[in-house]
Amino acid sequence: MARNPERRTALLDAAIEVLADEGARGLTFRAVDARAGVPTGTSSNYFRDRDQVLSQVADRIFVRLTPEPGVIDTALLPPPSRPLVVELMKQLAQRLAAERTCYLGLFELRLEAARRPELRTQLTKVLRADLDENVRLHLDSGMPGDADTVRLLYFALTGLLFDHFTVPGLHGDRDLDELIETVVNRVVPER
User: Based on CB atoms within 10 Å of each CB, which residue in 70, 78, 137, 138 is the most buried?
Assistant: First the structure.
């Protein structure tokens, strides 16, 4: 297996683009090589099989979706409140919308995980760690609500973004920020 970490990262980013554009069925070594602009056969030098690509794509997506160091600490400086939760959820949605390809790739991985137990195990591990970190941050910062509040916000944002990316006209003229505000105001208790 080749050991160039920059090339491996470029191949994983290309795989994310293939997933987002063509779905999991379109994810082949040849498609990744073409998207990355490298010679045919390059991906097979970095990954033993398609399952390994899928597994490593999950990790790469979360690296790309993780905010820069200090962003979360700065966002949590104001006093904990429902309006702050609204603002944080809007910022999160903006960050995820800016990485549309990653988020669509993640949806494709979720669907593929329904058919592949090994991928399901890996994806569950990555998603659980992310959700646990969100619960920890919420509770440690003193935001209103409990762990179930965070889970409900997670469910709602996942669904809202799925709609936003796949059927954006579903909610008529209501934009994403307005929908997020409605969700937070209904889910997060007042202090």
Answer: 138
